[in-house]
Amino acid sequence: MQIAIYSRNEVSRQVECVLRLVQCLHSKGITALLYEPVFRNMQSEPQRQLSGVKLFTETKDLSPKEVVCLLSVGGDGTFLDAASLVFGTSIPVVGVNAGRMGFLPSISVADADEALEHILSGRFEVEPRAMLQVDGCTDKRQHVLNEVFLQRRGASIAEITVHINGELLNSYWADGFIVATPTGSTAYSMSAGGPIIAPDAPCLIVSPIAPHNLSVRPIIISDSARVELEMMTRSGTVIIGVDSKSYELPAGGKVTVQKAAAKIGFVKFQRSSFYRTLREKLLWGADVRG
Hints:
The protein is an alpha/beta fold. The chain contains 7 helices and 18 strands.
């Protein structure tokens, strides 16, 4: 049995959590596989404490038959990178929240040891989450968990033309446009006025960012839909964001978004739930009047 650990920052809290997880696994006779760039970026003292730990750099270094799960240590951005790393394998992801708000990581640093006990004893479920495939943003197809967005550069408003299954939806005058999964409904889409969607709902959210026409609203569409985006700006270039990565594209280029054939697995514990996360992270029901 093996457990892989992924992180991407040198934040002291994250380094301390990685050390604690590796040491806990070793004490139980479990092989810990640590993401090599994280180890290389550590200071000499943490590296000394992790001497002898096994390292991995790519998905091919992880055997789905031996690796129970991938632990993501950080915030939402780290979790998105971790999901992209193991997409296409049967290895599920579980997040340890060593970042800020952290909607995606389900475990606090304080509860990490207890969570490991549940994982090692098999007391967890794997919840499938939909991913998106994106064509047209680079020469290689991208896969994302939260959202794809096009965004203007410079001060001039942009024109975004959106087709769904080949039919014109609208030409928007706005700062940009978002296509989000149910998992991504609590991220950028929510900030742009989109609805919160339960993660198992078979749909996508299409949302303009700061539209010029105030009657324009986000729309929920079937997750079988194929969305085509084209954005024109005076600057001649636009920004496309695919989860935690971004690229610059020439204006007028077409980007196609649709549900990916495969899904990513989330490790889910008995007491964790999407609705509980909403209450805790968004302070629903809390008296915030001071």
